[in-house]
Amino acid sequence: MPKLTVQGVGEFDVRAGKRLVKALIEDAGTDQLHACGGQARCTTCRVKFVDGEPKNITEAEKETLKVREVKEPGVRLSCQIACDHDMTVELISRLEGSGRKDQGSPVADEIEPAPEWTTR
Fold first, then answer.
1. Smallest Cα–Cα separation from 30: which of 84, 78, 87?
2. Domain boundaries, the chain
3. 3-95: what CATH class?
4. Coiled-coil ranges per the record (predicted)?
5. Tens digits of residue pLDDT in 66-91
6. Sheet holding 10-13, edge to edge
7. How far, CA to CA in Å, does 38 sit from each of 11, 15, 22, 27, 51?
8. 32 touches 25 (CB < 8 A)
């Protein structure tokens, strides 16, 4: 079972394959944003990897990061990452202080859109 460490929050066991955005909300109890419902369209679910950043990336995430000009090393979309190994992240996109009324639309269990994997 992979371990998810969220800086300033704690360490959590996560079901292998669970989407990171869902693990942050359901397992870690954070207020991680996900305005588009985990569709790799909005970048509100951004996290910064401290350790364990996946080498693979979905084409959808890669394109969205490019279009939105998100270039900071280690910054990824939590909706496009499966928890399949130990990882440590820093929350950088939270409900608190965002001015939004809620965290976002419901997120499906599987990565959407259907992932086409590539490298960064």
1. 78
2. 3-95
3. alpha beta
4. none
5. 999 999 999 999 999 999 999 999 99
6. 10-13, 3-6, 87-91, 46-51, 75-77
7. 23, 18, 9, 17, 22
8. yes
The pLDDT, as a whole number, for residue 120 is 83
Tokens 């001015």 correspond to 99
- pTM of model > 0.90: yes
* 40 CB-side CA count, 13 A: 23
CB atoms within 10 A of CB 10: 11
Q: What is the pLDDT of residue 79?
A: 98
Cα–Cα distances in angstroms (integers) from residue 89 to residues 48, 105, 106, in the given order: 5, 22, 22
Per-residue CA distances from 69 to 7, 11, 53, 64, 97 (Å): 25, 31, 19, 8, 22
